[in-house]
Amino acid sequence: MSSSIKGKKVSFDERYLHVELTDGRIISTPLDWYPELKTCTLVQLRNFKFICRETGIEWPDIDYHLSIEAMLLDTSIRCAA
């Protein structure tokens, strides 16, 4: 993967985490992949910031960090890490 995968915007719906990338692509992954996020309130979900030069997302209220690149990996690989 390339380190040029950078986030621009984060949004949610009932089932998915959506990340708009700086190159215009949108990645959507199931919230079920992230049990820590699935149990959060909407206020907690909206309180995020991009970290590591926009290659990751942090939710400080719950001390959770997510690599945007990891969202693109096969779930069996992502979960094994």
Report what the structure shows.
This protein is α+β, with helices and mostly antiparallel strands and 81 residues long. It has a single domain, classed as NE0471 N-terminal domain-like (2-Layer Sandwich), CATH 3.30.2020. 19% of the residues lie in helices and 35% in strands. It is built from 3 helices and 6 strands. The strands form 2 sheets. The protein has a 3-stranded antiparallel beta sheet with strand order 1-2-3, with no helix packed on it. A hairpin with a 4-residue loop joins β4 and β5. The longest helix is centred in the last third of the chain and has 6 residues, at 75-80. The chain is globular, with a radius of gyration of 12 Å. The two termini are 15 Å apart.
The count of DSSP E runs of length 2 or more, i.e. the number of strands, is 6
Mean of residue pLDDT values:
88
Shape annotation = globular
| Count of discrete alpha- or pi-helical segments spanning 4 or more residues | 3
- Any idea of the CATH class? Alpha Beta
Summarize the structure.
The protein is of the alpha+beta class and 81 residues long.
Strand-helix topology:
Blueprint: E1 7-12, E2 16-21, E3 26-30, H1 35-38, H2 42-46, E4 49-51, E5 56-59, E6 64-67, H3 75-80
Antiparallel strand pairs: 1-2, 2-3, 4-5, 5-6
Annotation keywords:
single chain; about 80 residues; alpha+beta; NE0471 N-terminal domain-like; three-stranded antiparallel beta sheet; 3 helices; 6 strands; about 20% helix; globular
